[in-house]
């Protein structure tokens, strides 16, 4: 079984990916892990990726695609299947993935799309605050400190609402054409992500059972 998981930052994609891997025994292929492994093993694409990263530059698509291709060609994929997490990030990468799968004689069985309203994600992602003295982390809504005084806390730039909104907007713009592409192929299962983690996973399992 070969799957792709998609969802906006904060939608719980990582949590559900871990549960899918544990339940179904597929190989978890996340972009970060792939890059680290390729560089550690000094594969052709790993060495190339490292040359860009060391210079502080973005890794070009052709190198990222090459690392994905190297990973999907490994023996465990044919034995166990895979769950792709964090790739493709652009429609161009999605088209490249189509070609890679054809080249390797593999087929994508389904796309699990974790859906959460972006306004909920904005609240979820921009609520983190840090105590200036202790460095302890809290959340304004989900884990507020008992003695909250605004002047005692600060937010990292990454957590500020305007930064989070920008990140979400970019992800939405990049993700929409990818989802549309896979919808045309009849591969997308939409999962409501704004519910209890176990309820989300129950829906994920139903979607995977329908795929199988």
UniProtKB/TrEMBL annotation:
Swiss-Prot/TrEMBL keywords: ATP-binding, Cytoplasm, Kinase, Nucleotide biosynthesis, Nucleotide-binding, Transferase
Reactions mediated catalytically: AMP + ATP = 2 ADP
Keyword Acetylation: no
GO molecular function, one term: AMP kinase activity
Compartments, record wording: Cytoplasm
Binding sites annotated in the UniProt record for AMP: 31, 36, 57-59, 86-89, 93, 156, 167
Gene3D superfamilies: P-loop containing nucleotide triphosphate hydrolases (3.40.50.300)
Keyword Cytoplasm found: yes
Superkingdom of origin: Bacteria
Notes concerning its domains: Consists of three domains, a large central CORE domain and two small peripheral domains, NMPbind and LID, which undergo movements during catalysis. The LID domain closes over the site of phosphoryl transfer upon ATP binding. Assembling and dissambling the active center during each catalytic cycle provides an effective means to prevent ATP hydrolysis.
Similarity remark: Belongs to the adenylate kinase family.
Protein name: Adenylate kinase
Source organism of this protein record: Streptococcus salivarius K12
């Amino acid at each position: 079984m070969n799957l792709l998981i998609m969802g906006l930052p904060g939608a719980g994609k990582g949590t559900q990916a871990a549960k899918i891997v544990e339940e179904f025994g597929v190989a978890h292929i996340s972009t970060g892990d792939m890059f680290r492994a390729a560089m550690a093993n000094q594969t052709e694409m790993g060495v190339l990726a490292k040359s860009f990263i060391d210079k502080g530059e973005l890794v070009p698509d052709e190198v990222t695609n090459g690392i994905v291709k190297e990973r999907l060609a490994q023996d465990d994929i044919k034995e166990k299947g895979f769950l792709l997490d964090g790739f493709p990030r652009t429609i161009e990468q999605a088209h490249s993935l189509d070609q890679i799968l054809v080249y390797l004689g593999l087929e994508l069985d389904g796309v699990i799309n974790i859906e959460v309203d972006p306004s909920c994600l904005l609240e979820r992602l921009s609520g983190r605050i840090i105590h200036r003295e202790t460095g302890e982390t809290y959340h304004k809504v989900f884990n507020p400190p008992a003695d909250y005084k605004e002047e005692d806390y600060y937010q990292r730039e990454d957590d500020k609402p305007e930064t989070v909104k920008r990140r979400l907007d970019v992800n939405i713009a990049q993700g929409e054409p990818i989802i549309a592409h896979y919808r045309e192929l009849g591969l997308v299962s939409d999962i409501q992500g704004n519910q209890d983690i176990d309820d989300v996973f129950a829906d994920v399992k139903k979607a995977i059972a329908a795929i199988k």
